Amino acid sequence: MLTLAAFNLDFLCIHPFRDGNGRVSRLLWLLQSYQLGYEVGCYVSLERLVEQNKDRYYTTLEQSSPGWHQGQHDPWPYLNYVLSIMKTAYQEFSERVGDIKAPRGSKRARVLASITRLGAESDRGFTINEIERNCPDISRDMIRHVLREQQTAGVVVCHGRGPAAQWQKRG
Questions:
Q1: Is it the case that residue 140 has pLDDT exceeding 60?
Q2: What is the pTM of this model?
Q3: How far apart are CA 143 and CA 110, in angstroms?
Q4: 50 lies in a domain?
Q5: Is 102 domain-assigned?
Q6: pLDDT per residue over 14-59, tens digit each?
Q7: 66 in the same domain as 119
Q8: How far apart are CA 162 and CA 171, in angstroms?
Q9: Which of 20, 89, 112, 165 could form a disulfide with 44 if both were Cys (CB 3.0 to 4.6 A apart)?
Q10: What are phi and psi of 159, to 5 degrees?
Q11: CATH at 150
């Protein structure tokens, strides 16, 4: 990540275009991030985060660029800025989706919990799509299997057929 940030600073100091150097540098930043395995830019706009911290962007660029042509510049203000933007992006991503790598409980238990929660939230019922949104790592087949089990046990009832079918929790 430090090499990426240093490259980005070098590009900005070279200033190859009359207009659009900042936008191109952020595009390169995003591309290099993907190539290095930092894929947070797929989910959180790095451009937006830079825009929200534009004053700091220009300040750190101003602090890091003097003496660049002589090799006597201090890259650390800009490097720290890039690192802070990436950290903010990962924090925002984590807040949005949570940690789904290690979900709690078995898949069946999580589908049952989703059925209970959705059944309590809505009188109209719920769809399989809503359960999928609550349990993104569980296959549709597994969700259907649990719903059939619950239907056989008399816990849920299905109204309709296909993707638009509404399920309701009894009692």
A1: yes
A2: 0.57
A3: 10
A4: yes
A5: no
A6: 988 888 888 899 999 999 999 998 989 988 999 999 999 999 999 9
A7: no
A8: 24
A9: 89
A10: -115, 110
A11: 1.10.10.10
